[in-house]
Amino acid sequence: MGTPEGIGRREREILTAIVETYISKGEPVGSRTLARANRENLSPASIRNVMADLADAGFLEQPHPSAGRVPTPKAYRFYVKQLTGEAQLSPADESLIQGSLGGIQDVQEFMERTSHVLSLISHGVGVTVAPSPGQRNALEHVYFQRMGDKKVLAVVVTRNGLVRDRVLRLSNELSINDLEAAAAYINQNFRGWEMESLRNEIARRIQQERNEYDRLMSSVEQLYSQGALASEAPAQAVFVEGAANLVVTEQDQERLRQLLATLDEKQRIVELLSAYLDARQETVRVVVGLEDTLPHLNNFVLIGAPARVGDEVMGSLAVIGRTRMDYEHTITAVSYIARMFDRLWNEST
Questions:
Q1: Which residue, of 15, 33, 157, 313, has the greatest Cβ tally within 10 A?
Q2: 3-state secondary structure 278-299
Q3: How far is CA 287 from CA 76, 272, 304, 322, 341, in A?
Q4: In this structure, which CATH number among 3.90.1150.10, 3.40.1160.10, 3.40.50.10490, 3.30.450.40 belongs to the domain 91-132+236-348?
């Protein structure tokens, strides 16, 4: 009985009852409480024997000698595996989600509102990561200006209004006419192209025409190779709602302080979700204990899914909460919103 697969029917039912009772009441569960609800009319003594076996196997712990038992992270992992995934979203939750998210046409706004909705539904922390504002940026125009001593200022403007300038150090001096011709070539041939596609195409053309260089392509290559059209990926938009939901007792203060420190560092949230949410996954993932990525989050749970449109992942959405949470309820909500995201953007494209 040392592994979940080795648990018998009776042990499984009692363990499930303990987990669900503890989630509901938040107090250690005793054998008498289980005996009153047990369909097989097992005596408290029989239930205590099963609970002792479950404790020996690492599924239960006893906070105080006179108290009942509480589930361990191992118990929650086992419990999650038993969920059928057939739960339906409650009418109240469906109304809340549809009222908050229905009809939104902007990905960033959808993700921002989703973090709030998930915090309300789960009573945990709703976390969403939206795609970088620059991921789908298309070129509006590029401009080059000589600064002397083989230096050129490159200014790139994208269609979403992002303006980026960069000083390039060239190996050869380029005249004003060279720079104007290079800018005209890029603007006339690539206006409206997404930046990544633009860079790939310019690299392809330079390689293709390497033996047929004229002055123009030589100038373009030098500017391109020095990073004129490169872009640092802008920080992904991260939305976090509901941290106050985790403040329950004074004993929580230190763990909460550590979690809030993590939530304040947006890049760490991106790394956390990236570590656990696989772009290839088709269903919601539940991770009990996040210590593999952040050791101080060993008593927290992540329930999340990628936000995708067809096969393209656009971001991620998740709930971070205590191990004592309504798993089925939260899993159902995360799954519903992920499907809603896919449906809304498939319909709009």
A1: 15
A2: CCCCCCCEEEECCCCCCHHHCC
A3: 10, 11, 9, 11, 22
A4: 3.30.450.40
For domain 139-225, the question of CATH label 3.30.390 is answered with yes
Single-letter code of the amino acid located at 126? G
User: What are the tens digits of pLDDT across the range 1-60?
Assistant: 444 456 888 899 999 999 999 999 888 998 888 888 776 677 888 888 999 999 999 999
Q: Flag whether the pTM goes above 0.70.
A: no
- Assigned CATH topology for domain 4-82: Arc Repressor Mutant, subunit A (1.10.10)
Rounded Cα distance between 322 and 251, Å, is 13
User: At which residue do the structure tokens 């050869």 appear?
Assistant: 172
Q: Label the pairing between strands 70-71 and 312-322.
A: unpaired
Q: Give the full edge-to-edge strand order of the sheet including 139-148.
A: 139-148, 151-158, 163-169
CB distance 136 to 194 below 8 Å: yes
Indicate if the pLDDT at residue 88 is higher than 70.
yes
Q: CA separation (Å) from 333 to 109, 310, 337?
A: 18, 20, 6
Contact 56, 72 (CB under 8 A): no
327-348 and 73-82 helices, crossing angle to 10°? 60
